[in-house]
Specification:
There is one protein chain. With 217 residues, this protein is of the alpha+beta class. Strands 3-2-1-4-5 form a five-stranded mixed beta sheet, with helices on both faces. A hairpin with a 3-residue loop joins strand 2 and strand 3. It starts with a helix and ends in a 10-residue tail after the last helix. 32% of the residues are buried.
Length: 217
């Protein structure tokens, strides 16, 4: 059956719109990835999002993979806070020394939990993501070993309790330059998972054990 000029035009128009839609998606996707790259380089001094961790000194095939649904939200917040001089940026490039410093501050954060009057419940586990490097750490509390931390671990499953933040924020929290409430209000820290309320309350008590601003969720 012959196809009318009207039908032919409609099909051509639909195909054109479909092609334009796909092209628009890829253009927007590339713009998004470029924006993330510029943002992260801006506040880390050269490190980027990687699937494993940019502190390895190399890059995987998934350089711009966001490690958590809240990664970009926190990254943007850190960039704003550094620009507003709320916190200090992390200028060091990925190196063994940078990894040592990052680990040192994470251990100090763990020690705050260990010395808190309201310790983490036994058998609780949560992960920390530092968005500047795509670095994961895991904190575990159990009867046998007490509170332990493993740094540079695999990404947890989607149901895990997670603290999404940055190296610059951890340093500011540990050095008492910013409160947890301020960090939460500015999206510098975002908790997720089934035990997020417990984690937030315990961290707030650990950082500000005597102040009236102690977080109690």
């Amino acid at each position: 059956m012959p196809v009318s000029t009207s039908e032919s035009g409609n099909r051509y128009g639909d195909a054109t719109r479909s092609t334009q839609s796909r092209r628009g998606y890829f253009v927007n996707r590339m713009r998004h990835l470029a924006a993330v790259a510029v943002l992260v380089v801006g506040f880390t001094g050269g490190s980027t999002f990687v699937h494993a961790c940019s502190l390895d000194g190399g890059m995987s095939a998934e350089v711009f993979t966001l490690q958590h649904p809240q990664s970009l939200r926190v990254a943007l917040a850190i960039n704003r806070a550094v620009s507003d001089e709320i916190i200090s940026g992390v200028a060091a490039k990925p190196s063994a020394l940078t990894f040592y410093k990052v680990t040192s501050y994470l251990n100090r954060l763990r020690d705050l939990f260990s010395g808190a009057e309201r310790p983490l419940p036994r058998d609780m586990e949560f992960s920390i993501l530092l968005v500047e490097y795509g670095l994961w750490a895991r904190v575990t509390s159990n009867e046998k070993d007490g509170l332990s931390m493993a740094v540079h671990v695999q990404k947890p499953n989607d149901a895990a309790t997670v603290m999404v933040t940055g190296d610059a924020v951890v340093r500011a929290l540990v050095d008492h330059k910013i409160t947890l409430r301020e960090a939460l209000d500015r999206d510098l820290v975002v908790f997720s998972g089934k035990s997020e309320g417990t984690l937030a309350a315990r961290l707030g008590a650990a950082i500000e054990p005597q102040g009236p601003r102690t977080l109690d969720l």
